[in-house]
Structure prediction request, 174 residues.
Amino acid sequence: MASLREIRSKIKSVKNTQQITKAMKMVAASRLRKAQARIVAARPFAQQMETMTQRLFESVVDFEHPLLARREGNLRMLLVVTSDKGLCGAFNTNIIREALRYLRRYGSENVRLVIVGRKGRDYFYRMGIRPLKEYVNFFQTLGFAQAELLSRELLEEYAAQPFAAVDVIYSEFK
Prediction:
């Protein structure tokens, strides 16, 4: 049987762990509020950009561009966007599960993966699937420059290879 001193030490240890957990929850809640505010603030801009792009395509009749041409073939590019860190429940699991469904639907030999996020990259490496490109720590300094870099590299890959389509799997914040 444990002595009184050992029991008191265990109680003190559990209380310290509770304090640390409480502090972690407060930090996480603060980060979540900030992220939610940024997402909500960006939505009107994104919706307006989508509307403007649709109107532009509808108004142009005889416009030909290599990126808008229909391509034949089975080769596809899949952009999978996961997080760099864990502790986010089913966030990464659901994205990876959907990516696996996609690979089964189109055949893994016909799909070239581009992975954003350490969790997705690590999972597919463990499965023996090597991505065409990978981007880790992408979200630490997320901004227009990173989005431009990613889109430019994807456009170059799309132009260089006979991809029939480029699809994106990501989680949308509700």
Remarks:
- The two ends are 52 Å apart (CA to CA).
- The longest strand covers residues 76-81.
